[in-house]
Amino acid sequence: MKMQTPVLPKAPAPSKASNPMAQWPRPLPLHLSLQTMTWLSSLAALSGLKNGSLPWRTGLKKAAEKLQKSLEKADPDLPALVAAVDAEACRRLRTFTDGVTRYRDHPRPRRRALPEFWRQGSTRVLNYGIHDGPGLPGAPVLVVPSLINRGTILDLTEKRSLMRHLAAEGFWPFLVEWGAPGEDERNFDLSDYICGRLEPALDEICRTAGQAPAVVGYCMGGNLALALTVRKPVQVGALALLATPWDFHAGPAGTVKMLKVMAPGLTAMIGQLGELPVDVLQAMFTTLDPYLTTLKFQRFATLETGSEKARQFVALEDWLNDGVPLVGPVAEECLIGWYVENTPAKGAWKVGGTPVLPDEVKVPALVVIPTRDHIVPPGSATALADAIPEAQRMTLAAGHIGMMAGSRAPAMHYKPLTKWLKETLGEIN
Description:
Rossmann fold, 2 domains, two-stranded antiparallel ribbon, 14 helices
């Protein structure tokens, strides 16, 4: 019996999105291949399931034993059983492709334009301050996202926006938007981004606001924010690090082993292209949970178009799929230096020729640790909390992205973070 594979429609015409590819789960060929191979293998797995030769993950063993027992009296070649498995495999694959198509075609609202506070090269600092009366907005807060993904995760929608929350609470928030690297950034390393972009932006905020801002870093942005704080201690009023990695060997050993094996190939690719492409980065993230994309697009296929859940899904997926490449020196510094050699935890990561040492942080510091984080394992972030003297820590029962954009994020994360900033900046002022 031959399985009929659903086919995706033609690629869409160019859109007004910052990257038209954001309207597909990236890299699309990888996800389609994974889906097709998974469900096409269902028939082949029947005989192995019956005789118990299939390997199972520890967490699935009980379910597998139950399934195997129910098949003891079934003939794996029985036409009705084969047809049922084939039909279910086709249904699941079709549901996935339906979800992808609906995601592509879902209406997208225009994002509001924000005033640009500062710019150099592809790097912009956006001004979220609300100013209706005399004088300046409230205490300044500089928020630094990762270099890999755009800063829109911090202002995803009206209801899921740390930036808008900070503004509504009386702060003067500034968001760094790195943008896709241009000619000015082609040879940048992390020192160039920190010393050449973050430091002058910080100088301008201090000059304009008349006081040192709190600096908040998310994910890789936390590492950049930490380095900025160590280098500019007088110009940073407080430091909050959200899901920020430090000990890159604190997570699953398989990730480090995989990168060590991949390192020569990645280095050769970076040398040839001058960057690490977005789709390569996305493929690497996919390996952390290969079937996450399967499940979420199958669920999306069941949502009503235009519903609140559908809009949130599309906004989040657009952010995930609209990443930017890492320029060569940064890619090598992070993938080889951080992940393979663990330079931050060893005190060997240098910015501007000087090691970035957490114990040199003298300002009030908060480390936020999501306990369900698969991108930055809790142990990696906890190592940073341990290394910063007198750092406070906040643990959240959330994942890496859920802490920032999940339905519980405003109550679980935004509010306690805001409370800490008010108490801390109030003490400073």
